[in-house]
Amino acid sequence: MSSVAQKRGFGAALWDWMTTVDHKKIGILYLIGGGFFFVVGGIEAMIIRLQLLKPNNDLVSAGLFNDLITMHGTTMIFLAAMPILFGFMNYIMPLQIGARDVAFPFINSLGFWMFFLGGVFLNVSWFFGQVPDAGWTSYASLSLASTGHGIDFYAIGLQIAGGGTLMGGINFLVTIINMRAPGMTYMRMPLFTWTTFVASAMILFAFPPLTVGLFFLTFDRMFDANFFDHQMGGNTIIWEHIFWIFGHPEVYILILPAFGIFSEIFSIFSRKRLFGYPAMVFATVLIGFLGFMVWAHHMFTVGLGPTANAIFAVATMAIAVPTGVKIFNWLLTIWGGSISVTTPMLYALGFIPSFVMGGVTGVMQGAAPLDYQLHDSYFIVAHFHYVIVGGVVLAILAGVHLYWPKMFGTMLSETLGKITFVFFFVGFHCTFLIQHWLGFWGMPRRVWTYMDGQGWNTANLISSIGALLMAIGVIVMVINIIMTTVKNVRVGNDPWGDGRTLEWAIPSPPPFYNFTQTPLVRGLDTVWIEKQEGNATGLTFAEPVTDIHMPHGSIIPFFMSVGLFIAGFGAMFHQETSWGLPLLIFGLAWTFVAMAMRSLKDDLGYHVTKEEIQRDITNASKGGQN
Amino acid sequence: MDLNKKFTPETWPEHPERATLEGKNKFVGFWLFLGGETILFATLFATYMALKNKGPSGFGFSTQELYQLPLVFVMTLLLLTSSLTSVYAMHHMKNYNFKKMQLWLAITAFLGLCFLGLEVYEFNHYVHEGFTFGNSAFSSSFFTLVGTHGFHVAVGLVWITLLLFRNAKRGLNLYNASKYYTFSLYWHFIDVVWVFIFTVVYLMGVIG
Questions:
Q1: What is the CATH number of domain B16-52+64-206?
Q2: CA A53, CA A462: separation in Å to the nearest integer?
């Protein structure tokens, strides 16, 4: 970002960000949007833990508690974890494969705005006082009985946000298939790119069922349909199947990019090639396949019968094999490496034992008979927080520290980073380890409060204290970010000193066209190879300096998303008001007109001329910022 | 990309829809999108099969009495033929024959419109018999599955109409060739889905 850009007025800057189709800016938008919802979901979690601090507590009402657990889960999964990972995918993946942008920059922007306005739509429910309250899984027998518009906010908000995610998934797939730099074969792609690829393929096949399920729910609640109402011949189990056919792949969609980030970190900070790279790729793809074949392990107690339960139990346990392959490969990457324990590396080292524990409790639940004992207890809560927080959130925090200098050109303080890690890591185990025992001792999940004298008091107190420690960790990180931004000490191309992949061979932050010339990729960890051979820049180019074709920005993605946002309110209120139906039609027509404008008006993009690029190259070689 | 570049049938590339990076991206992206659509329809089919003939106690509708195969047969013929005409259109596109391509696409759109008209008639008929959207689980799943297909046809019609009018005066170029081509992919996909609807919903409903 040039200094000229920072001197413009606020309005111009806002317009620039709202119309941007640059994958790096959209990546940052995803991080900001996801970060905002992460804080919202975190506050909800803190209130939950405060309510459960002591027995017979009445800090919040039982109804509000249901609202809180539902919104905490929904927000964290759909609006925090996914978008933050999408932010990294957007920013880093095209740089790793030597591309100048994603395949569909316009759709990339549309995906972001749909996610963001869908998330806003869901959270507007707080202001209406009618909040989703049927759990993040929103099982139909509960959600059809829920009064008010809470579940409507859930169904429509997630529909809009989910559409954005699906577009993002297709976009990343096409980018990786079509836009790799010369020499970047599939088996030379950095592992983060590979995990982005597999996670995107999973999004492509997992999100359409969610779309259909949410439409069924919308139709049942707002348009008189009867998919789930057994009195009208419907079947409530259909929702559970559809939800988990989406929901189980979803957790792998979250964890695979996290694996990718950690693979990069282990390799960089051990100064070694990733051990068993082909096996890592194979394990990633295998997890992607198996992830679709295990959904019914969420439904063992539904009564599908012993045959179905046995098949899904075996498939579930099978996933532990490729995951184990990965764990051993990471350990062997560290082994014999020249290790530097930086903040990202600390997270990576903490991740291995944490995630293994979450994985092992997962296999325990995969044993169907044992699951009958564990089902709906705090053991389940402990398990999925161990994989989601111990895997995904640690990866997100590690990724923030690792890629911050690349994205913003300044280095986060290592001291504060390590303090963040200690608070968060200790707090995390303090919160969730004890919950395994709470489950064994019989505490059911999703309870508003509990009676005294059941032996749960101390454990719940410990758990709540842990949550406080995690919150302190996050606050330290925010302080770190603010201090770093204020100090604004600029860093060079490769601030960690041991970058191995293409993103570490270009300026921090990269110019808007990423690469002055398309790079030539000579092997896995191509920049490392170049540096080993004495090429200090880390790059060999595949082409001379030529004109670069870039897409135009556009406000249309924002308008299309606004139309859907409006239509959502129309659908929600069409039964009780006269203006609902016209508003629904108006919103959809708005979106359609915006889309037609995009289609009818040619957008051929523009060219950055050779001379401008040559000037940037000259400036950079003089040491100036470009 | 230069929109004004003039081609002759000789200089026109063999795969105009994939001749540019944008075209290549659209080609791959649209195939992937159709993969997602397949899963979407698979979910709708599975739900329909689970809820077929299910309704409240004393429910009076069944697939055997409801569906009329002659009407559906005509609809099937119309849609299958429209798929064939879109193949002709793509043949002419590859030969750089813009006028014939536009003509065959217009015929495709006309056939699609006839199909949609018959579907509206069919739905209207059911509703008048009391088989409404909210009548039962069966009706909800039927109208959602077949209606989603019909919605796709309607979207396709708007799409091709816009394309035909937008490009009527300027002819073929490498910018719009991929747009025409993705439309034809979409239209074939709609056709394949209809083959499954014809089999699973109507044939298996009446005969099975």
A1: 1.20.120.80
A2: 8
